[in-house]
Amino acid sequence: MSKNTILPTAWITGGSSGIGLELAKRLLKDKYQVCIFAYAGIEQAVADLKKLSATIYGFEVDVQDEKTLQEKFAEAVAILGTPDLLINSAGISIAKSFEDMTAQEFERQININLVGSRNVAHAALPHLKQAAQQKKQPKLVFIASAAGLVGCYGYTGYCSSKFGVVGLAEVLRMELRSQKIDVAVVCPPEVDTPLVTEERKNGSPVTAALKQLGGSMPVEKACKEIYAGIFSSEFMIIPSAQARILTKLSRVLPDLYRSQIDKKLDKIIQKFAS
Fold first, then answer.
1. In the predicted model, is pLDDT for residue 225 greater than 70?
2. Quick one: pLDDT at residue 5?
3. CA-CA 20 to 30 A from 213: which of 65, 82, 107, 207?
4. What is the pTM of this model?
């Protein structure tokens, strides 16, 4: 398919699994041509997605490497043209207490989740600006987390990185408005993805129990709400009414929120200590 095609174009980093993969499926069903970028699993993901549509392409990238991102984004533009939509879904989670987490583990989450988000946005910006000049109304979407809005026990590195992603999105929303580039950030509660499955094997049971205050969602249900939010005018997209209520409480009545969380946390810790 040439870059002169009339189909809209979406790019998704972290598109080979989890939320990114599910959003790719929805975009293909809605007649988008999609290009996924991921550190691993690209070949299998593209093969699976081709069952839905032939307009799927994939590139192997590491979001920590902006030079490679620039090269692969340029290749994607040569094939498909400029993007109408860019979703940055690449990320990792290491659920350990601050005391147990090594400096390398902490830095790895910051480098992939936060610096990686910066690298993706910066490498894509020339193409998003070109898309805006072509009257495409491009949109840049960051997948953050509810853990980027409220703290969570055992998530020092993850929360630090995702709070940063929300801040990055807030600033880019303001800076890119005049360039006709829309920005949104997605802050879901726990979503049942391979990332979460892996985390449950070694993560703290206290963290797992506390996270249930925000609820847990199947990936299909979460992405249905995320997808609707992406195509709305919302800046902050929070799937799940339970997570929205929790987040609003934390912002409107922070002292009450913290006192209630502390009571829940004390009970959880006592349960696992006994």
1. yes
2. 54
3. 107
4. 0.94
Distances 119 to 64, 73, 112, 181 between C-alpha atoms, Å = 7, 12, 9, 17
CB-based burial, 136-166: b 16+ in 10 Å, e otherwise = bebbbbbbbbbbbbbebbbbbbbbbbbbbbb
Residue type present at position 250? S
The parent domain of residue 190 ranges over: 9-205+214-243
Strand-pair partners of 35: 11, 57
Total count of domains within the chain: 1
Q: Is 116 exposed, middle or buried (0-12, 13-18, 19+ CB in 10 A)?
A: buried
Spatial separation of the C-alpha atoms in residues 6 and 2, rounded to whole Å: 10
From residue 86, give the alpha-carbon distance in Å to each of 33, 35, 196, 218, 256.
12, 10, 23, 23, 37
Calculated CA dihedral for residues 250, 193, 165, 104, nearest 10 degrees:
110
We report the CATH number of the domain holding residue 189 as 3.40.50.720
Residue by residue, DSSP assigns 180-230 as T-EEEEE--SEEESHHHHHHHHHS-HHHHHHHTTS-EEEHHHHHHHHHHHH
Whether residue 254 lies inside any domain: the answer is no
Residue 266: inside a domain: no
Q: Output the average pLDDT for the chain.
A: 94
Cβ of 255: how many Cβ atoms within 10 Å?
Answer: 7
Looking at 114-128, 145-159, 210-224, which range is the least confident one?
210-224
For residue 248, is it within any domain?
A: no
